[in-house]
Design goal:
The protein is α+β, with helices and mostly antiparallel strands. A 7-stranded mixed sheet has the order 1-15-16-18-17-19-20. A 5-stranded mixed sheet has the order 9-10-5-4-14. A 3-stranded antiparallel sheet has the order 8-6-13, with no helix packed on it. Strand 15 and strand 16 form a beta hairpin. Helix 4 crosses helix 5. The two termini are 25 Å apart. The N terminus is likely disordered.
């Protein structure tokens, strides 16, 4: 049984009022009557390296036609502060918190007459991320974001006097790709996000892609931080399969992203039936084709995708473990998946990793699994580079999220889409 969770109206923690004071000596009135208060939305995009705030949209459409020629990057100043949502011990660290001015690269009007402030952003760019990584927990958490807008010069309107806004109120966070996934909780209490394809009477049952996240996107224990958010904001793993390109290749597919209550690796055999429960519930309630269910996972989730095909050899049409863990990291202890279990996997499997992965060594994990899984395919990269930016070698899931791996002219999404159970 699955119960849908109503979407929160404000996703950004701490998204209360963020006030930019009017300039001294300038009228803080619209048309000389009532003080003007304008709300604003934080516009986010999930880049390959994680979600960033890329622009701010001011709700100015109701103020009357604004002359776009009067808007410049210097018209407004944007200050951003990002702090941890949970207490951080003095001897601990959280990465990516910040308190700084964001560089405004452009100011323009959208089709609704709202002012959009474009912000400088790029892979590895500091001061724009929405997630923080807590070192002791090995977890990402959604940062509390407080943005403050200050108006530096009046807005020129086509009709009426120039306008200085008295007050700016932060409204929420918008990421259309993330927001397309609905919120759910399984009968056993596992949270998950679900993308549902557009339906047409001419289409029958649809494929289902199960995305299993890495270690940094599970719950943070013992803090009881379990947000059902970081799975879609830390990387494009699940989002890639919901893009128009992927949806065309799969002829419309459901994409489900369960969130672990800890680490998948911590207790994989216990998590396996909880993931299967979600899959079976979706097959029962949605128009899912049981012969076209695919499992894809990275790092911790790469291990879990292998574990799922060991536990349920007849459930999936294909499996894509990315930089998956087979041997215990750091050495010592029994393997997480034995050689005999790997040799018995019958699900068509395509493994992906980078040779410079210094988190999950390729030789003892991905390459070892490929040597044992009958008929498996493998893509080995030298480095993880996309659009000219080099990421850590462990982040080879970026290639799968962009449909880059290919063998004999067939790319990995097309290979998956052709598989049937």
């Amino acid at each position: 049984m699955s119960t849908s969770v109503t979407r929160r109206s404000v996703l950004a923690g701490g998204a209360g009022a963020a006030i930019g004071l009017a300039l001294p000596g300038l009228a803080a009135h619209a048309g000389g009557h009532h003080p003007t208060s304008v709300s604003f939305t934080l516009d986010a995009r999930t880049l390959d390296g994680g979600e960033q705030i890329t622009s701010v949209t001011l709700d100015t459409g109701r103020l009357g036609p604004i002359d776009p020629a009067g808007l410049t990057p210097a018209t407004f100043t944007v200050h951003a502060k990002a702090t941890s949502p949970i207490p951080i011990a003095p001897d601990d660290q959280i990465f990516s918190v910040y308190d700084l001015d964001r560089s405004v690269t452009a100011a323009r009007l959208d089709r609704h007459g709202n002012i959009v402030l474009e912000l400088s952003h790029a892979e590895g760019h500091p001061g724009g991320g929405t997630l923080g990584y807590i070192l002791s927990r090995g977890r990402n958490v959604r940062l509390d974001l407080v943005y403050t807008i200050t108006q530096n010069t009046p807005i020129v309107r086509r009709h009426g006097s120039p306008l200085t806004i008295a007050r700016f109120v932060q409204a929420g966070l918008s990421n259309p790709e993330v927001d397309a996934f609905s919120y759910h909780v399984s009968g056993s209490g596992l949270k998950y996000r679900l993308y549902s394809p557009d339906h047409s009477p001419r289409h029958g049952r649809r494929p289902l892609i199960v995305w299993l996240h890495g270690g940094g996107e599970g719950a943070s224990l013992p803090d009881d931080y379990y947000d059902n958010e970081t799975t879609l904001r830390a990387n494009r793993g699940a989002l890639g399969f919901a893009t128009p390109q992927a949806q065309r290749i799969f002829s419309g597919a459901y994409v489900v992203a369960p969130q672990s209550t800890s680490y998948w690796m911590e207790d994989g055999p216990r998590f396996a039936p909880l993931i299967r429960e979600i899959v079976q519930d979706l097959v029962r309630r949605k128009r899912v084709d049981p012969d076209r269910i695919y499992v894809v996972g990275c790092s911790n989730g790469g291990y879990m995708s292998l574990e799922m095909t060991v536990a349920y050899p007849d459930l999936f049409a294909a499996s894509v473990p990315i930089c998956g863990v087979v041997e215990p990291l750091g050495g010592g202890g029994p393997p997480l998946i034995t050689d005999a279990e790997l040799a018995n996997i019958q699900t068509p499997t395509w493994l992906v990793t980078s040779r410079d992965d210094d988190t999950v060594p390729p030789e003892t994990n991905t390459i070892h699994a490929h040597d044992l899984i009958p008929g498996s395919l493998i893509s080995l990269y030298d480095h993880v580079v996309w659009d000219g930016y080099q990421f850590p070698g462990h982040w080879s899931w970026i290639y799968v999220a962009r449909n880059d791996p290919s063998l004999n002219g067939v790319h990995i999404w097309q290979w998956m889409a052709r598989r049937r159970r």
